[in-house]
Amino acid sequence: MKLGVAIASDNALPSAFVVMRGLEKSIKRAAELGYDGVELALKNHDEISHQDLRAILKKNNMEVSAISSGQVFAARGLMFTEEDKEKRAELETAFKGFIDLGSEFGGLVNIGRVRGMINGRDPQFCENLFLDMAWNLADYAEKRGVKLILEPVNRYEIDYINNCDQCAELVRKVGRKNFTMMPDVFHMNIEDADFAEALIRNREFVEYIHLADSNRWAPGDGHLDFDRVFSALSKINYNGWCTVECLPYPDPETAAKRAVDFIRKYYI
Ligand code: LER
Ligand code: MN
Question: Which is the catalytic residue, given 47, 82, 127, 151?
Fold first, then answer.
């Protein structure tokens, strides 16, 4: 298991769920704190060039755990369930840029809130919009050795795909080997009846994990049962990334440090 931390550029929205901001300084600090890698929460694929990113990672002996796309929804209003052709084309371009970046760095691109809303529309109509985009992007990603990872997100943020079972059902409908799932234990704590049962039941699709406590502070700062989470991950022989995606509270440095200190006891 490898440990990552979510970071973004200095100009990321306040609603970007990241621990640290400023790409270069966050990568350096994450390395010093003992993380193995960083998840890049990007608005645009060209926020950083491949060349600059390669150099910063090498200097700090760090990896990219995944590229995350929440700001494409939050800042640009783009989503898989969009009907408007121009906005769909804009989303496709953004994601292809993320996939190109992912093909050199980490090989994983997240689909969180960007899967979109239903907003009172016909659910089947929305699913078709989602599937069209998912198939198109999965084909593009497959040729570049990249996986797309769909994240169940709680009902207070999105009205489509809230728990792991719904996510697994949609992953089956997409039916592509490079289209899997990434549970976030903060959302699971709201939406899934039991961490262990949900992870074990859907083990074939668990590709990546987001970690935050019940209050979305650093793991250890709330009341979420991490013993149960990590024993389930060990039961399913999970060997991928666990990436801290908590709020930067009480401040980014403290959150990043508390998280790594708390989680270290669960991994070697
Ligand atoms: C949003 O709450 C979240 O968890 C992100 O990883 C996805 O947008
Ligand atoms: Mn998340």
Answer: 151
Strands 209-211 and 241-244: parallel
Proximal ligand: closest to the CA of 244 = 2
User: What CATH number corresponds to the domain at position 112?
Assistant: 3.20.20.150
Give me 216's structure tokens.
Answer: 């979305």
User: Torsions phi, psi of 262, nearest 5?
Assistant: -70, -45
Cβ atoms 258, 220 nearer than 8 A: yes
- How remote is the C-alpha of 80 from its chain's centroid? 16
User: Which residue has 């390395």 as its token pair?
Assistant: 31
User: How many structural domains is the chain composed of?
Assistant: 1
Active site residue 245: yes
Taking the CA of residue 184 as reference, the ligand 1 atom at the shortest distance is 4
104 in catalytic set: no
Does residue 70 line the site of ligand 1, with CB under 6 A?
A: yes
Per-residue pLDDT of the chain in tens (268 residues, 90 and over written 9): 999 999 999 989 888 899 999 999 999 999 999 999 999 999 999 999 999 999 999 999 999 999 999 999 999 999 999 999 999 999 999 999 999 999 999 999 999 999 999 999 999 999 999 999 999 999 999 999 999 999 999 999 999 999 999 999 999 999 999 999 999 999 999 999 999 999 999 999 999 999 999 999 999 999 999 999 999 999 999 999 999 999 999 999 999 999 999 998 887 5
Contact by Cβ (8 Å): 180, 186? no
Which range marks the domain in which residue 53 is found?
2-264
Overall pTM > 0.90: yes
Q: Which atom of ligand 1 is nearest to the CA of 186?
A: 4
Three-state SS at 92: helix
Residue 16 identity (one-letter amino acid): A
